[in-house]
Specification:
The complex is a heterodimer of chains A (114) and B (114). By secondary structure, chain A is mostly beta strands. Chain A has strands at 4-7, 10-14, 19-25, 33-38, 45-50, 56-59, 62-67, 72-77, 86-92, 103-104, 108-113. In chain A, 32% of the residues are buried. Chain B contains no helices and eleven strands. Chain B has strands at residues 5-7, 10-13, 19-24, 31-37, 44-50, 53-57, 64-68, 74-78, 87-94, 104-105, 109-113. Classes of the chains: A mainly beta (114), B mainly beta (114). The A-B interface holds A 6, 31-32, 34, 36, 41-46, 49, 51, 89, 91, 93-95, 97-107 and B 2, 4, 33, 35, 40-45, 47-48, 50, 55-56, 58, 90, 92, 99-108.
Chain lengths: 114, 114
């Protein structure tokens, strides 16, 4: 119930294309869903996050779509650029305990070809 | 940059040894979390400290221990190192205001156990 399942494992997109990464969760107590971007040799950096009271959130070229009934959420990167090549992690947390620990997906390696 | 610094950046130890990893939190942050990231995997929650007390623990054995100091810097100690402890160890600081606070990750310490 604590798992967050992420797909695909890897993704290759042409410059200017749309990158789509999907995540699914089991625990209905989760109420915070962030996406992190990680470059080699760096720690994850928060990209965008959503709460279940909205179905979509957009920040620049990055959009999260959230489907509460299906317990799924996805990251869309519009106009993908070579600089977006990185590993992306979805995550979830909720007030199950006081630490609000993040449960991460297994990651998606995105390669944007020039 | 997140303002979270970790040291050392790389470390090589042998099985059975003990290791101490250090983290300096972002200014103003009162909560620190530690995560273990195995190669090709998402980060896994080890534990969290809030105001110098452990505030939640993941599925890690007691040989993983930590400290948070009055200046909110932190240490992760691992005793009796095993080969499977080889991973990137990430420190994340945050400000405990309400649930689901934003985490700011350091670049990590890459630990290799031989």
């Amino acid at each position: 119930q604590q798992q967050v399942k992420q797909s695909p494992q890897s993704l290759i997109v042409q410059k200017g294309g749309i990158s789509i990464i999907n995540c699914a969760y089991e625990n209905t107590a989760f109420d915070y869903f962030p996406w992190y971007q990680q470059f080699p040799g760096k720690g994850p950096a928060l990209l965008i996050a959503i709460r279940p009271d909205v179905s979509e959130k957009k920040e620049g070229r990055f959009t999260i779509s959230f489907n509460k009934s299906a317990k799924q959420f996805s990251l869309h990167i519009m106009d993908s650029q070579p600089g977006d090549s990185a590993t992306y992690f979805c995550a979830a947390s909720g007030p199950m305990d006081s630490s609000y620990k993040l449960i991460f997906g297994s990651g998606t390696r995105l390669l944007v070809r020039p | 940059e997140t303002g979270v610094t970790q040291s050392p950046t790389h470390l090589i130890k042998t099985r059975g040894q003990q290791v101490t990893l250090r983290c300096s939190s972002q200014s103003g942050h009162n909560t620190v979390s530690w995560y273990q990231q195995a190669l090709g995997q998402g980060p896994q929650f080890i534990f969290q400290y809030y105001r110098e007390e452990e505030n939640g623990r993941g599925n890690f054995p007691p040989r993983f221990s930590g400290l948070q100091f009055p200046n909110y810097s932190s240490e992760l100690n691992v005793n009796a190192l095993e080969l499977d402890d080889s991973a990137l160890y990430l420190c994340a600081s945050s400000y405990r205001d309400r649930g689901n606070e934003k985490l700011f990750f350091g670049s990590g310490t890459q630990l290799s156990v031989l």
